[in-house]
Specification:
One of its GO terms (molecular function) is precorrin-4 C11-methyltransferase activity. The chain is an alpha/beta fold. The chain has helices spanning about 20-25, 60-70, 90-100, 110-120, 150-155, 170-180, 210-215, and strands spanning about 5, 30, 50-55, 75-80, 105, 135, 160-165, 185-190, 200-205, 220-225.
Length: about 250
């Protein structure tokens, strides 16, 4: 049988992909992080499904559940918040499943940064303003960052910076990015994006620590920094320019 790593999206059940919904509805075992996946998403599980909250489990305990399900001939829906391609711990789970000979596949989901950008009503890449988006985090109380991926170094590259798992250290984020971006750079924090209790904070980089503290945000939030958040005067994209050649392509050679 198969373990399905499923991107559960940012939280809103109606942002699940159709494939994700169908996989959950067919899996007799569902593993999820209760701190990130809303209870109503579990209502999609089939009647009698075994649902396991992994929030307080170790990696070995989690993979142990999947291996046991496989040996009993049961498919597993392994829900990951957002999209499993970033910050999901999927890689180390796959490594263990491969060692046990357990097959798996991946169903993508709506990433948290996309839901946050939607809540802000902004595009993160704007012509001549920002054409690069950096997705990262900070190392505090977590796995160390690679030597060349410190926030100060990444910030020097410019573009739009998006931080996951970092809102609890927002002051450190500001200190690291301010030398490159300036304290008056547009910034935002979106907590619980797409959910009924979503919180959206807008302002400048230097204003974010106070705003986050006053809002009581401690987790489940995305930090976005960059001029794209407030860009108004920029040229139209060449993609839809009247000067762009739109001759039909010939047959493949």
């Amino acid at each position: 049988m198969t373990v399905h790593f499923i991107g559960a999206g940012p939280g809103a059940v109606d942002l699940l992909t159709l494939r994700a919904r169908d996989l959950i509805a067919a899996a007799p075992v569902c593993l999820y992080a209760g701190s990130l996946v809303p209870p109503e998403m579990l209502e999609i599980c089939p009647p009698g499904a075994r649902t396991v909250d992994t929030a307080l489990m170790t990696l070995d305990e989690i993979t142990g559940e999947m291996v046991r399900a496989h040996r009993h001939g049961l498919d597993v829906a392994r829900l990951a918040s957002g999209d499993p391609s970033v910050f999901s711990a999927m890689a180390e789970q796959m490594r263990r499943l491969e060692a046990e000979g357990v097959p798996y596949d991946v169903c993508p989901g709506v990433p948290a940064y996309a839901a946050a950008a939607a809540a802000l009503g902004r595009e993160l890449t704007v012509p001549t303003v920002a054409q690069t988006v950096t997705l990262t985090r900070i190392a505090a109380r977590a796995t160390p960052m690679p030597e060349n991926e410190g926030l100060d170094k990444l910030g020097a590259a410019g573009g739009t910076v998006v931080l996951h798992l970092a809102v609890h250290r927002i002051a450190e984020v500001v200190d690291a990015l301010a030398p490159s971006y300036g304290g008056d750079c547009p910034a935002a924090v979106v907590a619980h994006a797409s959910r009924a209790h979503e919180i959206v904070l807008r302002g400048t980089l230097e204003q974010m620590p106070k705003a986050v503290d006053e809002a009581g945000i401690q987790r489940t939030a995305v930090i976005i920094v960059g001029e794209a958040l407030a860009a108004r005067h920029f040229p139209d994209s060449h993609l839809y320019s009247a000067d762009r050649c739109r001759a039909p392509e010939g047959p493949a050679q």
